[in-house]
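Changelog-adjacent note: as of this version, every example in the card shows the full chain rather than a window. The one below runs 171 residues end to end.
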Amino acid sequence: NSLKKPLFILLFVYLALCSITNNSHEIETVSINGDFSSGDIRNTIEDDFTEWITAISEQDTSLNEIPVYIIAHQGGGIRGMSWSARVLQQLDQNIPGFYEHIYAMTGASGGCNGMICYNTLKHYYPHEDPTKLDTILDDILNYDYLTPTLATYIFSESVQYLSPLPINCFD
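Full-length structure tokens:
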């Protein structure tokens, strides 16, 4: 029993040292001309912010000050998703150029889903008046996405589990 504690500590130290030196999640990219590259090719946050702020200032040279929005969304399931999407939509209606000045958004659970709803709305309707997007947002938030997913899981997956061979048409 006394031998297990030092071995566990050595194993923990070994794993900690490995985690410092091992990047097991390398990012692989493909350039426009088809060349593959791997490794950590991301910009630093300082370089990325400088590029972003330069692009914003080139788009609108009349700005003396450039507003920068960094948004954090709280979780909370469906309620968090609805609240998050509606608050972002309301801010977009009340603050001119709000969407264009968002530098970063992060979130968890439903709040992150609300962020995705808002971003999708702005992606597919980039030039639409924000006050006219409320009905589209309501349609997105009020649609029942869970029932078809559950029905697919319950019926096709349960048959797949009982079958000794895969049934490709259920995929």
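Structural remarks: The first strand starts at residue 28 and ends at 30.
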